[in-house]
Design a protein that fits this description.
Elements lengths: L4 E6 L3 H12 L4 E5 L5 H6 L1 H19 L14 H26 L2 E4 L2 E5 L2 E4 L2 E10 L3 E3 L13 H4 L8 E5 L3 H12 L3 E5 L11 H14 L2 E3 L4 E6 L9 E5 L4 E4 L1 E4 L3 E3 L32 E3 L10 H17 L12 E3 L5 E5 L2 H6 L4 E8 L3 H5 L5 E8 L5 E7 L3 H13 L4 H6 L24
Parallel strand pairs: 1-2, 1-6, 2-3, 6-16, 8-9, 8-14, 9-10
Antiparallel strand pairs: 4-5, 5-6, 7-15, 11-12, 12-13, 17-18, 18-21, 19-20, 20-21
Helix pairs in contact: 1-4, 1-8, 3-4, 3-6
């Protein structure tokens, strides 16, 4: 049977763009459907604009710290509209770059949301398209639980386009998006509270990292409220739908906020795909089921990135796309290694982590030792700031290999990238010890851990 395309990609995010562009360069006739802006979540309403906001918010702390270095000023003003609009212009520029990349590769871009007709056919705005292979790369979307007043909150999507910043905001959640936006709002001068119904932020991270980061968030000015859950939300004035929100907490306390952000997780964005028409199965969380070669329960349909139940990171989706291309064109069975993937949380302070947490190593019954330190970075000896940094290494006693590295502090994301390479390559603690440190930096602590830094584990 002949088809209009060799490959039809649903979703022009990081994974979809990479797969479609490379497939077209290898001779496939490719089309990609995208109902929103090119580049997907990361470029438009995710990591890129969020990092720009982080940069902007860091100046708020920087001005406070400048006096110790001799800088004085007679007041500082912040204009939210300038940051917001400059961010939007930069994203538009990136959208154009993505469009050019796809066009230059010969990929046909179809504007609109696609849904399945069958395992070889999709429909976009009433028009059908057939393809020998179809790739689903639609990513994930924010999840907001249903409760009275849930329509009065915003998700991370809307945070990038606020008309104005509130004077007081509540962030609900405990994951990386919650702590990042709490840091952004706090740094931009908003009175910020971070509420979570559990007893610890950042589930899944190393326990020492979780505890240390939470205390540092408090020191930075964020009002961290653990074991705190929202009952319902209502307008302070029913005649002003854009006005203040009254948040009623379980336990009876009520408080007024200008903005309530729910950062309570993300779910696969599969609602409008009509997957059942193609015989594509999903798991309990809505993630598309795939085998090791990214093939769904329909043999002609593939899926990768955040829409699957793997690690939700942009670089992972791009690597998955390249592995899928090798499977299609080179016949290589996919052997994607999801271990030792470096991760950064751009909270303030930032977090960098790669490899096993102490709790994961314990659950595997491993014989290992831990080196750990926390200290006041040189910068703050003059800034007057009280921020501290945490560094931690896990070492397997069986072969001396470093199996985990964790950091809380300035430039953690930048530092952890290099450590990720070392750990991926199988570096031992002896290799770390033999490496000359870059002085004076915080990063040198990772190569100067001595026996005195051994952590006594319970």
């Amino acid at each position: 049977m002949s088809y209009q395309y060799d490959l039809f990609v649903i979703g022009a995010g990081s994974g979809g763009v990479r797969a479609s562009r490379v497939a077209a360069s290898k001779g496939y006739k490719v089309a990609v459907a995208e109902g929103s802006a090119l580049g997907g979540t990361c470029v438009n309403i995710g990591c890129v604009p969020k990092k720009l906001f982080v940069y902007g918010s860091e100046y708020g702390h920087g001005f406070d710290e400048a006096a110790g270095f001799g800088w004085t000023h007679k007041g500082v003003e912040f204009d939210w509209s300038v940051l917001r609009d400059n961010k939007t212009n930069e994203i538009k520029r990136l959208n154009g770059i993505y469009g050019n990349m796809l066009g230059n590769a010969g990929v046909e871009v179809i504007s609109g949301y696609a849904s399945f007709v069958d395992a070889h056919t999709v429909m976009v705005d009433g028009k059908t398209y057939t393809a020998e292979r179809i790739l689903i790369a639609v990513g994930a979307k924010p999840f907001i639980p249903e409760f009275q007043g849930s329509d009065l909150v915003v998700s991370s999507n809307e945070m990038f386009f606020l008309d104005a910043l509130p004077k007081k905001a509540l962030v609900v959640g405990a994951g990386y998006i919650a702590v990042e936006f709490a840091g952004i709002l706090n740094g931009l001068g908003v009175e910020t509270s971070l509420a979570y119904r559990g007893d610890q932020l950042l589930r899944g991270f190393d326990q020492d990292v979780r505890e240390f980061a939470s205390e540092e968030y408090k020191k930075s000015g964020i009002d961290v409220r653990l074991n705190t859950d929202v009952s319902h939300i209502e307008l302070a004035d029913a005649s002003k739908p854009e006005g203040d929100r009254v948040v009623h907490f379980k336990g009876g306390h009520s408080e007024v906020f200008g903005l309530v952000l729910y950062a309570t997780g993300r779910v696969p964005n599969v609602g409008s795909l009509a997957l059942e028409k193609a015989g594509i199965e999903t798991g309990k969380n809505g993630a598309i089921k795939i085998d090791n070669n990214f093939t769904t329960t329909a043999s002609s349909v593939f899926a990768l990135g955040d829409v699957t139940d793997k690690i939700q990171l942009t670089p992972v989706a791009i690597k998955e796309a390249m592995a899928l291309i090798d499977y299609w064109f080179e016949g290589k069975e996919v052997d994607f290694d999801y271990d030792n993937i470096p991760t950064a949380v751009f909270s303030q302070p930032a977090i960098g982590t790669v490899g096993l947490t102490e709790q994961e190593a314990e659950s595997r019954g491993m014989d290992f030792r831990v080196y750990q330190t926390d200290f006041r970075a040189m910068k703050h000896t003059l800034s007057g700031g009280t921020a501290r940094s945490l560094m931690k290494l896990l070492v397997n006693n069986a072969d001396d290999k470093v199996i985990g590295a964790h950091m809380v502090g300035d430039y953690s994301g930048e530092i952890i990238q290099g450590l990720g390479i070392a750990i991926k390559a199988g570096a031992t603690k002896a290799h770390f010890d033999a490496t000359v440190g870059v002085h004076p930096t915080s990063a040198e602590e990772f190569v100067t851990f001595s026996a005195g830094a051994l952590k006594e584990r319970k």
